[in-house]
Description:
The strands form two sheets. Strands 1-2-4-3-5-6-7-10 form an eight-stranded mixed beta sheet, sandwiched between helices. A two-stranded antiparallel sheet has the order 8-9. The protein has helices at residues 4-7, 50-55, 59-68, 87-91, 98-116, 133-144, 161-168, 198-211, 227-241; strands at 10-17, 25-32, 44-47, 76-80, 126-131, 151-155, 177-183, 189-191, 194-196, 215-221. 45% of the residues are buried. It is built from nine helices and ten strands. The longest helix is centred in the middle third of the chain and has 19 residues, at 98-116.
Amino acid sequence: MTDDRYLKRTIIKSTIDSRHLPEGSRNLRIYLPPGYNEVLSYPVIYCQDGEDFFNFGRIATSAQELILDGGLEPFIIVGVDVDKSVRTEEYSPDGTRHQAYVDFFVEELVPFIENEYPVRASVDDRILAGDSLGGTVSLHIALQHPELFHHVMSMSGAFYGASQQIVAATGDLDWLNIYMIVGLQEEAFETDRGVYNFVELNRDMRQLLQERNATIYYEEKDGKHQWGFWQKEVPAALRYFIREY
């Protein structure tokens, strides 16, 4: 039975204007930790697929439990919603809206959050998180902007050929710290770009990142390409990045 304290979460829904995104705005959902105080400062996790991360990934509930009873220091979570009809175009590095999304993220979203909430403005305290193509775009935001992001949480990253080519052409990545998991039952997953073996895609990306000296946590375990798998992995991923209090 779930402890009621884990469900008494503070989640604020907000909208940010954007000159980069064609629709001119983007919806956000922001989790504030128990005991939130504007005088303090907090690490921040930016989640792609914000609605899914909160509703299906239950990341706010996991955060609440880890902060109240798991010994982790309080942190803020920013979920960035996405229109799934253009998700691939935004999240894939060869998508037609990809650069606009990256520019929105870096030039508008991060300054907005750092102006409105007491998050720590350092690479050690910003984390990017995503599932499937959300893991992909998180990695590519970090690759384009290592001055802002060093930490990436990737749940079954959709590391297609374009992503692998970009990483293969990249120099030393000793600054990058990436958490990668993939399910062993993801060997023939049908996407809008065809059927892919996500285990192989993640193994190949791990190899490319290893060759460039990135710090990698990598695990393959039983699981399908769905939130039923990723939700169970969220707490361990949070523990990897967030310090104990």
